[in-house]
Amino acid sequence: MSDTSHEVIIIGSGPAGLTAAVYAARGNLRPLLIEGAQAGGQLMITTDVDNFPGFSKGIQGPDLILEMKQQAQRFETDFLTGDVTSVDFSKRPFKVVVDEDKTYTAKSIIISAGARAMLLGLESETRLMGHGVSACATCDGFFFKDKVVYVIGGGDTAVEEAIFLTRFASKVILVHRRDILRASRILQEKAFETPKIEMLWNTVVTDILGGPSGPVEGILLKNVKTEEILEHKADGVFIAIGHTPNTALFQEWLELDDRGYIKTRPGSTETNIPGVFAAGDVQDPIYRQAVTAAGTGCMAAIDAERFLEGEGHT
Q1: What residues are annotated to the active site?
Q2: pLDDT tens digits, residue range 272-281?
Q3: Which of 267, 277, 286, 272 lies closest to 307, judged by CA?
Q4: Which side of the chain, N or C, has fewer Cβ within a 10 Å radius?
Q5: How far apart are CA 147 and CA 47, in angstroms?
Q6: 81-119, pLDDT tens digit by residue?
Q7: Whole-prediction pTM value?
Q8: Where are the alpha helices (DSSP H) in the chain?
């Protein structure tokens, strides 16, 4: 790509970034979207997406990303495959360096780099992700009606996911490496009062069982006190040990909360630096859904367009 100067650069190619691209391109901002070496975000490892509006029969995660990308391309969004390795927001135009090699500049920036679920590090966990292993109960709980599922973790996220899953599963086993939960007291009380939830203390996962492409058939659990390893039948395994926003590149420039998420003004995608906006999971520790990410991507593009109009862009 010979043109390195842009009205807006979008960093990230999940639902937030792609929606921002559609709106920015339709606003005649000629956006450059830097999609990363692994484009598409978390939807690229999601199989059935049944809760994104407009797809009455559901859609595969990678297919949804492809549809959104093709829509952005139709409005002449420029795409660049590569990883952003550094940024300079000290003055405008802002600088974005890709693959430590080429520098691009922009009058405005939309950061939609997403977040990643923290995982256990098991080969089977990665292999079976989307085939019985999930990091999002809200996304996938529906597929486990009358099933036995395990939730791994002991904090607020794990307990919230376990409670949510009782709407569908016949039994939810919460696996925690300690003998006391880290979740807030009110969540703990609710979990303990829920008949479908069973606690498994002082226990860690050593493997998740299933065929090469699923489904999940069982789980190997080790008691950390006795070292005993037992195999349990399982229809699903939900990893709920937290999320990490992809904000390391921006911590020098932007205000982050205590969990590393980019702070934005209420009702806006504006960051502490005028002209820099944040959308999607990179600034949302609460909802973490494709549709909410897309919504904030729309907001970010409109915010960027209004910002540039205020400076005389036509």
Answers
A1: 136, 139-140
A2: 999 999 999 9
A3: 277
A4: C
A5: 18
A6: 999 999 999 999 999 999 999 999 999 999 999 998 899
A7: 0.79
A8: 15-26, 61-74, 123-127, 137-140, 156-165, 185-192, 290-310
